[in-house]
Amino acid sequence: MRFKEDFLWGGATAANQCEGAYNEDGKGLSVQDCMPKGPRGPVTEGPTEDNLKLIAIDFYHRYEEDIKLFAEMGFKVFRLSIAWTRIYPNGIEEEPNEAGLEFYDKVFDTCLKYNIEPLVTLSHYETPLYLAKKYDGWRSRDLIGYFEKYCRTVFNRYKNKVKYWLTFNEINAVLISPLLGASVLTPKTELTKQDIYQAAHHELVASALAVKLGHEIMPNAKIGCMVVASPVYPMTTNPEDVMSAYEKQRELMFFTDVHVNGEYPHYTKKLFKDYNVKLDIREEDREILKHTVDFVAFSYYNSKCAAADESKYDYVSGNVFRGLKNEHLEFTQWGNQIDPIGLRVILNHFYDRYKMPLFVVENGLGANDELVTDENGNKTVYDDYRIKYLNDHIVQVGKAIEDGVEVMGYTSWGCIDLVSAASAEIKKRYGYIYVDRNQDGTGSLERYKKKSFYWYKEVIATNGESLEY
């Protein structure tokens, strides 16, 4: 199997998980700066020393070194996010922070120097803390205007440097984690379905508004949505289980339905009725939603199972959304099910539904890597388990392409070790590059190439011919 010549191979990061420098050059506080334990922990009043994201892997000062390593692997694209609070520290300023704008100028220029296309996420779980506190995050319609201003600023600034954009990272995560997905500070236990879906609606309108602005300012740009993706399998052939899985799949899919079709799908009428949700949808909202995306991007880590009566089965963790245990699958160290074929399933599912280009922008294996010294005296990690995981998933991307699915590219998650979003841990490593930083905050921050570094370099160089089937 050989992927097409223009296939976009690369890797993915997020500003709050890799940049560090949380209080440098005029940057304001984001919600992430006050979430030392991740979304499962409380939001603190201010940054605390145990928040590893405050330094993260210091990409802010080491971006040239890191992008050079990405270029050595042969990256065609690098997915990263802009920290909103580097541009508008509190989200409400009249003028943007020039130092923040200059930083991303330098990052994008470095990417382009190595012929790497930046793929930029506008909002990757890092709303300004001020907006989260004042408005309870995206529960308020007011955030749409602040986000529009931020988007207009970065689109105008980088219109000649960035061709590929994503609006919100994993926008459907708001359903499970309103704090992570929409910066809602009110505990989920105190929120109604009305509150959660109204916040989701505000993000959907803001996302469509970003698409509208982007197409106006950058006619040649490609702007996509980004969701958590997972096929939902029925636990048994019992028709009730099949129907339960179908309904759960649609609840995950309706965000992409809105982005692609420009309106809420018909089945949300029953969904909202069942949940007693009556959205405040204004006429201008409906007009804005008609501005649809150019491609659909998604994260994929695992599949899920569902049943009409879930009390009979065990739950397992997943990327944001949990599901029932699938006895046919193996597990990662962090308890996530491993299902490479599920990636082919969801690619076909999306393409059957939308006939639109797809982009796998997150996929990877988090593991507790061991740094060792090789026979030549160089430090490395023998991460064959990661190589197997990634090989098996990329093979399924290739098979989906053979099925006729149009796939733009593949950016594996955490191409360099970074701080986990879900748990705020550094020991949960995903990268091809090991970063010497420990869970207690110690470490030199030096970079070391893992075995998977050279494996991925070969995959890119051969356009997939080196993969094992």
Gyration radius, in Å: 21 Å
DSSP strand tally = 18
Shape: globular
Discrete helix count: 14
- The residue-averaged pLDDT reads 96
Briefly summarize what is shown.
With 469 residues, the chain is α/β, with parallel strands linked by helices. It has helices at residues 15-18, 59-73, 84-87, 98-113, 129-135, 142-158, 178-182, 193-217, 239-261, 268-274, 283-289, 340-354, 384-402, 451-461, and strands spanning 8-12, 77-81, 117-123, 164-168, 222-228, 232-234, 295-299, 304-306, 315-316, 323-324, 330-331, 337-338, 358-362, 372-373, 379-380, 407-413, 433-435, 447-449. 37% of the residues lie in helices and 15% in strands.
